[in-house]
Amino acid sequence: MPSLARQQSAQRFELGGEPVTIGRRGGGAEIEVDGLDVALRHTTVRRGTSGVVVRDLNAGTGTFVDGRPVLHAPVRPGGFFLVGHHVFRVLPDHVLAHETLPTPPSLTLAGLTIRHHGKDEPTLHDVSTALPSGGMLAVVGPSGLGKSTLCAGLLGEAVVESGWAEVDGMPLGGEHQLNPALVSFVPQTSSLLEELTVEQTMWHAARLRLAADTSTAELSRSVHAVLQRLHLQAFQKQTVHKLSGGQRRRLSVAVELLNDPLLLLLDEPTSGLDEGFDRMLMRDLAQVARDGCAVVIVTHTMAHLEEASAVLAIAAASEAEAPATVGYAGPPGGLLTAFAADSAADVMDALRDGHTAAAGPRPPATQSPPQPGTSHDPPRRGRTHPWRHVLVVNLRREFRRMWLRRWLFTTLALAGPVVAAALATWTNDRGFVGSPAQPNTDLAMSLAVTAICLSLLSMALSLTSVVNDKEVVRRESRWGVPDSAVVLSRAISRGVPALVQAAVTTTFLWLGNDLRQDTATGLPAAVEIGLVLAGLTLCSMCLGVLVSCVSTTAEQAVGMMSALSGGAVVLCGLVLPLGESSGFGRLINWLSYFFPTRWATSALAAAVDLPNTAIVHTDLMWRHDVQHVLVPLVVLLFASTLFCTLAPIALRRVRNDVRR
Ligand SMILES: Nc1ncnc2c1ncn2[C@@H]1O[C@H](COP(=O)(O)OP(=O)(O)OP(=O)(O)O)[C@@H](O)[C@H]1O
């Protein structure tokens, strides 16, 4: 038993020589805390040379030091680390003080100046206001002045040049972000998967936002409590695409409440909806604020501002090119009076013209910014979620979505390859057999048709798998879902129909063609051809995933696929003679190596001994031996791995570019 002495109150612990585990109540950890975002065994803490050393056990939603999830980090006396909603402060003499983050919290913005990444000038300057606990802050102002920029700053997605923000003493934004899992953001765009039901959407989000070891009963209680809070219980079984605009917004809010955030940011949640809905949602959000979470709502509608407890109006700068700043900060009732205006439209005009009114409550100027967790030695970066758990959750969802679109995937997996094999068979009535004395003049065409059709069909399996979900991926990346898990879940789920494509094509080629020839590897001809086709379909499908990650829109992905399709046809090696060793031919030859069809047709040609069974140009890659079948197969598998490795990098870049 580790020596762990409780001091004075239940909140102080003196660490002994042995490491101590922090975990959810009921899991047998030495320090037990509440909350479904804490795993049963979440973090260990031990004495360090000065202060303590924390190690995340990668089972919950991360251990945070200085706003970053850490795997392993020293924390000196005076610093703190976060586990779920719990702050552990490190005191002298290896004493840990535990407190639960207060709910509802207050929010303070003090002199915030925010600029977007890649920009030299700030968009917002000197934004200050204070929101008491249990309150809701409405951020209003003319278009384009920086309301969404304020959210980006608080989320840590834009640069906070000066000033600071905090929720009850915990820093927000900038380098020393509070545990990001405690800040929820409802974006302006619909970032929900259309084919899932309300309940499935919530379950999936709960699995990602709560600890991996949360039981089904606990998850269910949590999901249903939030659905009830947002009056969505009656729509549980409804698919998202059948929901009204208002119900979608509610669902969008609901998924962000699952983890009991400390701060909820909403970017125009009522835009495009009627006034009745606006009032209803404002009331619900005010209730959410009273129940325990600071709410900041960016809104264009000023009709129901009285539901908020404070208003922050953004005004244009009086000088051109200067950043926008605070036009008014105070109670909603004082807004019209402050601008001597008769209507909301007058207030907007005044703000657009750069008028500012007397500011409301400002944080005391003498208050210093909250100090971060102070880990002086570099911590080892950790994850907010166990990677395997996230992959499994994403995979389950992908298989479910594919099942919901089973006709499309069945067609791509079965009907397409049957057509490809049939075409290959019809173009060649002698099967795959030929000899130097009696060459099979159609064999090259058969191989080309098979490889090209299969490559395009398998690329189609994954082409829209990420690009159509970019908004969802962006939202879930804020929850800590790694891009690699997103990519791998798409690749594995689409890998199944891709392998079925190869198997179906091989079976039909085997049934419809004479596959008696001597094989290069000594394996039965159908097995050898099947392996090559499996390599081709996997590689093309992974290329589709990469294209999907690189593209910002589905149109762009289709454009890229069209260009790749052209290359796949022309540079497969059976349409244009390749293999020249000088001049332009050499360049084309090199280019062809980037196309999976080039390697697949080479392996097929080597497998059926094309130079001796058909009348074709010569190509050095077609020699009928084991090496010339296996090397292309290895290249196809290597390329599949490479595409899946590059895809998360591309996805991260595209996501960040879109944010910028
Ligand atoms: N990611 C970004 N990168 C660079 N500049 C940006 C980015 N997002 C917004 N901006 C710029 O910052 C300024 C403020 O934009 P922002 O979206 O914050 O305004 P807004 O008040 O929320 O507008 P609206 O009410 O129309 O949504 C604009 O000039 C905009 O072009």
TrEMBL record:
Membrane in keyword set: yes
SUPFAM superfamilies linked: P-loop containing nucleoside triphosphate hydrolases, SMAD/FHA domain
Compartments in which it is found: Membrane
GO molecular function, one term: ABC-type transporter activity
Region Disordered: start-end pairs: 354-384
Record-linked Gene3D superfamilies: 2.60.200.20, P-loop containing nucleotide triphosphate hydrolases (3.40.50.300)
Protein name as annotated: ABC transporter ATP-binding protein
Organism for this UniProt entry: Lentzea guizhouensis
